[in-house]
Structure formats: C-alpha cells, structure tokens
Amino acid sequence: MGSDFPKSHILGIDISPVQPGTVKPKNVDFTIGDVTNLPLPYADGSFDYVHIRLLFLALKAEFWPVLIKELVRIVRPGGYLEMMEAENICMEGGISTGVPNLGTIMVAGLKARGVDIHVAQKLKGYLSAQPDLTDIHQKTETLSMAPHPSDVDGMKLAKMMNDDGAAAMGGLKGAFLAKGVCKEEDWDYVLSENLKEMRRRGHKVYWTRCWGRKRSSEE
C-alpha cells in the first residue's frame, strides 16, 4: 500500500514485534501497540483511513462496540473505517486418521473465554450503530483450502491460509498440550494431519469486509 500511494504516510500497528525493520517503503512506519488499551494514543481525526483485521480470535464479544467507537474517533470527517474478519477457519468433526481435531478444541476454548467467533456476521451492524458513520457496505468472499490446480491465484491464497492456520494453531500449542490433546513429541504430526484434512475436504473460509465513511461536519 505504501508503494501504491507514495504521497501518503502509513502507520502499521501490532501487539507483537513482527514488523519488517528495513525492507519497507519510506512512507511506512510500524509501531507496537495494544488496541485493547484505550484510549488509543492518537488525536481525534488523525487518519484518513483506518483498517483493522483478524482480531476475532483475540477480542471478547463485549469489546467490539467499544473499540469501533474509538476507531471512529480517530478517523477524520470524510475518511473511512474498514474492518475485515474471517469465519469458519476451524474444521469441525472427526479426522480420518483419528488424531484430535484442533479446530473443535480451539472453538470450545475461545467460546469459554467469551470470544465471538462469529463476529464477522456482525460487523455491518456494529458500524451501522455508530451515528458518525454513513455509506456502510459489506462484502463476503469464500476461499477454499483446496482450489482447482488451474486456479493459480486460488492456489496462492490457499497456501497463505494454510500457513496462517498453522501459525494460529501453533501459537496455541501450549494451551493444547496443557489440555492433554497430545504429547509434545506428537504435536507436529497432529497439526500436520489437521491441515491435511482441511485440504482434503476442500474446507472453505469466509472473509467479510465491511467499511463506512465518517460524516463530514456539513452532514
């Protein structure tokens, strides 16, 4: 995005220090931040465009409206807020090789923590509830973990989802092992079999994008 819009200044925020340090356009900066630590350290109307994504595994259900209100605050009048979340990232049911289904276990754990795994369906409602937002739109796209080999773009996206799935479940390895899902020496095999099963079934992930414009002072 920094290369496509060279006259802009782009600020990326993540809770972990995963940002590239050197290979990036000069108009792009990264900082470590926690969006649950409100208020955010930015003045009202600081940004023309705010994009937030893939927090559905981290935020509790009751926090979403609070966060969205804060994001609207830092968007300038006439600017845009866009959100994107995924749904159905986890595969339910048994696995042909008999290993534990990490997706089923993960969903149960997230629900127990108060996480709304279906928040993607509610984004438009959350944005519509903000009186300062208008022109609200939503778009959902379906991506398969096993597209036809002739679908070059689909194959690239499937690999990215496979890698993201491995990272997401791998990040919860300690929690899975604490629940006695498997022995540590069996972890790599169990994770690999889960990902293979998702590809075998042609598991589909739904990506929902929702955006709205902040009203100008004349509206």
Automatic annotation (TrEMBL):
Transmembrane segments: none annotated. Pfam families: Methyltransf_25. GO terms for molecular function: S-adenosylmethionine-dependent methyltransferase activity. Residues 5-79 form the Methyltransferase domain. This is Methyltransferase domain-containing protein.
